[in-house]
Amino acid sequence: MRYGKRLAAGGGGLVPSSDRGRHCGQRAAGRGSRLSGRHTGELAANPIQAWFLQSQTSAAARNWFNQSTLLRLKRKVTQEQVRTALAVVIARHAALRLRVSEIKTATLEIRPPAPELVLLSHEKIVGNSEAELERIAVREHQGFNLATSPVFRAVLIEDGMTQRLLLAAHHLAVDFVSWRIICEDLSAALSAMFSGQPPVLPTPTSGLRQWVDALRQAAEQHSGEVSFWASQLVAPVPALAAPPQECREGDCVFEYMTIEPELVARLRGEGCAAYRCEWPELLLAVLAGALGNGFGLSHVSIAMESHGRDLQVTGASAERVVGWFTALYPVLIELEDNRPATVAKAVHEAAAATSQGARFGLLRYLTVKGGEELGRLPAPTVLFHYAGDAAAAEEKRLVCHGAGSSGTRHQPDRLRTSPVEVTAEGGPDGSLRFQVSGPASLGGQLKLLAAELARSAALSPLKPAAGSRWQTWTMTALPMMGSWIVF
């Protein structure tokens, strides 16, 4: 706790096409190329990219680790119009032009804007549209090659009078937040094209290279924190351990548990106010309580995944930059029982680590000392991720859910670094759904954990807690990665 305090203190509608609109979009793409063309050449991987390249030894698993979204187009567009708009977006965002030049050293390359980077195909669907959508999406996900092919691709899909646009990108180039930026910029490019105006896209808050350079400088400044992060990696959950060969993505089984809107509202309102914490921190404490009750633990180390864009570094901001910035770090929580004081202590332990969690990746992957000392320690058995709030997304002008499948995003043979993954996701009705997944050999334990999550949430007392509050920027107000309407 004292160390936690020291860490915190240390640091548009489419109209019929026209030649004028097409040429206008091409001129804008050219300007975007000149703007972004300076940001080319070799680039060192950031911490999460280095983690991925080092943890996945199979080329097939590395190439098939993607994100995707399905867009619904409100007005008719042609393939050439979409291609022109995509060229503008790709020219603007360097991450969409990445390739891997060296796996061992985690070296990337930013390619200059070029027509061959706009990978767009056209499909007409007849018959079972959902089955056809799935087939197309899987084909696109299987088509990535980090060394040779573009990391961003699109399919214009026509189903009778309906047009949809499938966008798929390798995770190395995008994260959850990136889709909002990409879709807003694509919408602006299309709208401007059909109004006969050059698209004016917001400027990224930092260049990709500028951000990575700033991270490396920050890593050296915080080298004294290695021992703190090593102390967070000491409590795996033996009952949930599994040999690597059983942790294939395709062999995992899933359990689900939903908390009703009334309890969610109380926890999110009264609970967060009482414990002076953010919503993901309270959820992490709920998970810790479930692990303690279910498996008789006195303390537990959980891998926490967050967006990572709140890291304060000198001279750079990732607020409006397309890329993969996820932070993955361990959080050690001590457990006794479900008394209010213990819950408050667990919440504040979570807050102390999560407030500066992105520093773990800096030290683990960007410094020699951190790489040696932290690399020797086992990864936590359980990974937790708060995926955001669908209710917040419904308020966004460009978002619409339920447009269809966007495919299986991970290669079935990919090996998990943490056997058990727990994801919490807010529903549009105010509910909260936990997804618990892991190897089939742990099926009974996963069922138990899902049940204990419900019990832990219901028993979390809403009592005032003494102590300071650690401020964090959470995913709560950011849009869900769903289906976007582009107009």
What does this structure look like?
Helix content is about 40%, strand content about 20%. It has about 475 residues and is an alpha/beta fold. It folds into 2 domains: about 10-205, Chloramphenicol acetyltransferase-like domain (Chloramphenicol Acetyltransferase, 2-Layer Sandwich), CATH 3.30.559; about 210-485, Nonribosomal peptide synthetase, condensation domain (Chloramphenicol Acetyltransferase). The strands form 3 sheets. It has a 6-stranded mixed sheet with strand order 8-13-12-11-9-10. The radius of gyration is 23 Å and the shape is globular. Mean pLDDT is about 80; it is low at about 1-40, about 390-405 and about 465-485.
Short description:
With 487 residues, this protein is an alpha/beta fold. The chain is 40% helix and 19% strand.
